[in-house]
Specification:
two-stranded antiparallel ribbon; 101 residues
């Protein structure tokens, strides 16, 4: 599971870099008082979008969906599928009880 966490972190980082590049193209450059142009910083971009980035949006949608699935009855197809997938990854190895035998 730790390797999956690292690859997820890298994917989220790449997604945030891509998002900032697109935002810089959308919002353009900033003209300073001395007449020079510069690209916007990450803090300026976060202020412009009010910290509503793709990663946070994706996380809230995932949590919202999982809440709906949790409230469904146990005989629903979606809940059965989720239950089977989580049971597969529940134990990484033998439990203490199994190791004692």
């Amino acid at each position: 599971m730790a390797a999956n966490h690292g690859s997820l972190r890298k994917a989220l980082y790449r997604l945030s870099v891509f998002e900032r590049n697109i935002l810089r193209k959308i919002f353009g450059t900033t003209k300073e008082d001395n007449g020079n142009w510069r690209i916007k910083t990450n803090d300026e971009l976060n202020n412009l979008i009010r910290n509503k980035n793709i990663s946070n949006y994706n996380m809230t949608q995932t949590l919202s969906c999982s809440g709906h699935v949790h409230r469904r009855t146990n005989d629903g197809m979606v809940k059965k599928t989720i239950q089977v997938e989580t049971d597969i990854y529940k134990f990484g190895g033998k439990t203490r009880h199994e190791m004692g035998k």
